[in-house]
Amino acid sequence: MKTTISQAPQHVEESVRIGAWLANKRSSGKIAFLQLRDGTGFIQGVVAKNDVSEETFRLAKGMTQESSMYVTGKIVEDARSPFGYEMQVSDIELIHEATDYPITPKEHGTEFLMDHRHLWLRSKKQHAVMKIRNEIIRATYQFFNQQGFVKVDPPILTGSSAEGTTELFHTKYFEEEAYLSQSGQLYMEAAAMALGKVFSFGPTFRAEKSKTRRHLIEFWMIEPEMAFMDHEESLEVQEQYVSFIVQSVLENCKLELHALERDTSKLENIKEPFPRISYDDAITLLKEKGFEDIEWGEDFGAPHETAIAESFDKPVFITNYPADIKAFYMQPHPDRPEVVLCADLIAPEGYGEIIGGSQRIDDLKLMEERYEQHGLTGPAYKWYLELRRYGSVPHSGFGLGLERTVAWLSGVEHVRETIPFPRLLNRLYP
């Protein structure tokens, strides 16, 4: 019977056939231990000389790393394995013998591994990160579908900017100026006026010359937008969503978290509600923690976010930032027009901001004033203004950065390991 490694537990004491690659091996006299992978998981294949043909044992002893094969054998329970099962091999059919595979079990430098990213993805830890990424995506669709949201796909090529044009990739759209999207939010607002509660999931681009471990040039965003919803209600959705994906990863990615040696005790505590701290109080806290030069009106960098997060054991919302350092579309606080109804959600353990969200301006006159203040005079923004002219309602939304969230839940240090083929300041290959 042909099956996969992930399905092996359903075939205990049965003989099965699996297409696999050789991740690693070791041998001891009359027995060979093959570390097999097939994309769905990893399993050890045990080849005993006395139980197989001479040709099969010769193949097992001589097979090279990343050679491909069909392997036949009986699935048995093995309490010593994190997977809980192994295969007692009876036959091997070699498909392709790999020679001089460049990524050996020894240590390699980061640049070498990034140059071979197309192969590095095969490693056990990179495989685990990608599986956790996939689980977050799966859980995202489950959460928003259960909550009555509609999936909408905004364009990647746009004629306008969500937050200013300085960090956008410019391109020509025939005779017009266009940009690669930095956010689908403006379009999601239009979709929310049609469909009520919507979310998007797609790539976004920032032409930001940053080399930090938290930044990518191309990354993926989950962006919900909700009509008839104020900022406080939006914060509750954010708490529920983040709690849901954390618990889904804990439930469905036990092997992957084990492979990454992730301390899951820190994730088991991630359940709503999350603590909140105002921007004002965050400034005070930072001064107490030694950031004496930070002044009201300045944006927070990575060290500031990490210092704030250290005071809490869950993600923390920083609310009500100064209007001058936030996007033009954010609703002013009703009692303090110098700050806006917004929040950034900061992940624990130094992983930084994973969500930015706000209530959006719904008043036409105020939005026209914002247009004038920010010089948004071109025709590309006309449609966005019309959302306030025809049936405007209070509405809120947020965006979650997938790669930072994957990094946090996986426990990996750098976001470049959380996307299959990262685009960095100095990297467009492979």
UniProtKB/TrEMBL annotation:
Aminoacyl-transfer RNA synthetases class-II family profile domain location: 130-430
InterPro entries reported in the protein's UniProt record: Aa-tRNA-synt_II (IPR004364), aa-tRNA-synth_II (IPR006195), aa-tRNA-synth_II/BPL/LPL (IPR045864), Asn-tRNA-ligase (IPR004522), Asp/Asn-tRNA-synth_IIb (IPR002312), NA-bd_OB-fold (IPR012340), NA-bd_OB_tRNA (IPR004365)
Any Pfam family matching the protein: tRNA-synt_2
GO molecular function: asparagine-tRNA ligase activity
Keyword Glycosyltransferase: no
Compartments in which it is found: Cytoplasm
Protein's recorded name: Asparagine--tRNA ligase
